[in-house]
Amino acid sequence: MKWGYKHKTGIIGADAEYYASRLFMMIKNPNGSRRPDLISPEISFDYPISIELKSGKGKKGVMVDYQLHYALNTSEDYFELFNKLPPKVVKEDLFGKKESSFFDSESRIPYYYDVLDRPDKIMSEDLSLPFSSIKLSWGDHHIVPNYFAFYNFAIRKHLRTGGDLKLIIQELEEMIKLDAQGDCHDYKLRKEDAQSWQNLEGGDVLAVYHDLDFKKMDISSQKKKVLNSDSD
Question: What is the 3-class SS of the chain, one letter each residue?
């Protein structure tokens, strides 16, 4: 196995998941490659929840667009977003063919993003030896519902590209629909697009939590423009 930069950052992400799973009494999702990182076992929670964990220094996590569809679990979720029921597909198993949906879960599962701060000064080159993850330190959690993260993604893409915010939201919703139905498979190609990656800042979460007055804050004129257009 090549012990390179990506492998070392993978160690950081895995350690963050193990830490958070034990703290919240959750388990790592066995299907984590296409679903949120952490899910709640029935024994720990009265109602199920799921968490997508984003860890990093400076209270910053990184979102990717092909994970946005994780929020869709039921037909009700789909209808709420697209104002129509999800399409039916024919599946065949040992008992024959039957119609079903990609969203057959019986109950809605609340979906959250958790930006886990890493206050240590560990660099990737400090993780070369086995069990190096013991050096890592974990700080505050900044937890928000999925719709906060979704609109954060759209606004940050707007700020970086200058594109129309409403159009960006519509394009992201259409992308979510295709991804949730399994109709899009170009994930590797999408990773190469810089706009597929947007920051999720713990500082923004704290601003909402403490109900800060944005008018008194020193923010750029571009951010002010977004806030004003969003309130129209």
Answer: CCCCHHHHHHHHHHHHHHHHHHHCCCEECCCCCCCCCEECCCCCCCCCCEEEEEEEHHHEEEEEHHHHHHHCCEHHHHHHHHCCCCCEEEEEECCEEEEEECCECCCCCCEEEEEEECCCCCCHHHHCCCCHHHHCCCCCEEEEEHHHHHHHHHHHHHHHHCCCHHHHHHHHHHHHHHHHCCCCCCHHHHHCCHHHEEEEEHHHHHHHHCCCCHHHCCCCHHHHHHHHHHCC
What is the rounded CA–CA span in Å between residue 209 and residue 186? Answer: 37
pLDDT digits (tens, 9 = 90+) for 94-103: 555 555 555 5
152 pLDDT above the threshold of 90: yes
Nearest alpha carbon to residue 101 among 189, 156, 5, 181: 181
